[in-house]
């Protein structure tokens, strides 16, 4: 995918790598060949490649404004990246604004809220909030950047069903739009922009500051129960029915998962295909134990890590890889998970299959995730019952087979699909405008296009899962 711009003397940059338009060589701009350039463009997923004409290591909002204004003068596209978890579209050319250094975190105990910079990661945010007895709707990994995650909705495995999407609890943000202006958006100010950016990802500008609500949570009763993959026909239908009856204080998922051979796990679990049932309960540990107890008797258990834990250990629920990894992903949304759907999953991803995938997951939605918040956002498809997500981690020579198998899994689950997708789970293989459109209802998508046309009519911020202007 070529995003515009040309490397070298024929583009916006001069032959020696510095801009050819009289701005000199700022000390926080990197060009191809500079020390630090390769590290700055590398992200979590190594299958995504970025070769911008320049990288701007932004230290504050003014640095972001300068980069955007420069790009505007020379008609260059702009990508923003903090941790690299959300930057999932390959490109060549343009400007990459790295906000990793803008990682400030300020907790306000009185209002149970936090103000963060665009480089802040969930791990440090949780550590900052914990002394106040507060926690946010964190993603599954400590290293995920909270701003990019929240702009894509923010589906939390900790207590998402209890409080909804992270985007639902944003109260204010500052954003640099395509004209280089720093704008403030709240429920009362720049209302269309406030609505669109919460769910529309990075299509509307670069967020330089974000305020969102925290919740009084000190501990979780949480973790994962691992079963042999051969027990899937007992475990998965039982989990589905158990989850349907669980209170909203339970957030849960189930997955076929191939454990790494070098993982810090018991020897009989390492390198094995298992069924992993993930559970997070907010409340008294004794009550949580009673809710989880039926899961412990449905089939032989290989490993059970579900226990009371401080919220700051929440990443142990999913135990995501630290990365970087060469990941190939596909996703969709399901309206139901009947026996036939489970049988299809088992046939294609279970112990008797030839699946090359490392993870095939269904994640329960519903609860507060299904309800429109007091201040509506652009998060789409709240009526879905489950996300369906698959990932294969393989070297380049095996990529084609894994991509094809991921597509096969998505196609096989089509009878129970809503036709939609969750935008944060879309991969680089799902970056076509038709794929992006799947993440929204038609009415929401048309409104997003309208807002995009107002604030970025030249589509500067297109190096993402793009919503083009009308």
Automatic annotation (TrEMBL):
Pfam annotation, one family: FAD_binding_4
GO MF terms, alphabetically ordered: FAD binding; oxidoreductase activity
Residues annotated as domain FAD-binding PCMH-type: 48-217
Known cofactor(s): FAD
Source taxon at top rank: Bacteria
Transmembrane segments: none
Keyword vocabulary terms for this entry: FAD, Flavoprotein, Oxidoreductase
InterPro entries reported in the protein's UniProt record: BBE, FAD-bd_PCMH, FAD-bd_PCMH-like_sf, FAD-bd_PCMH_sub1, FAD-bd_PCMH_sub2, FAD-linked_Oxidoreductase, Oxid_FAD_bind_N, Oxy_OxRdtase_FAD_BS
PANTHER family registered for this protein in UniProt: BINDING OXIDOREDUCTASE, PUTATIVE (AFU_ORTHOLOGUE AFUA_1G17690)-RELATED, FAD-BINDING PCMH-TYPE DOMAIN-CONTAINING PROTEIN
Family: Belongs to the oxygen-dependent FAD-linked oxidoreductase family.
Protein name: FAD-linked oxidase
The organism of origin for this protein: Nocardiopsis kunsanensis
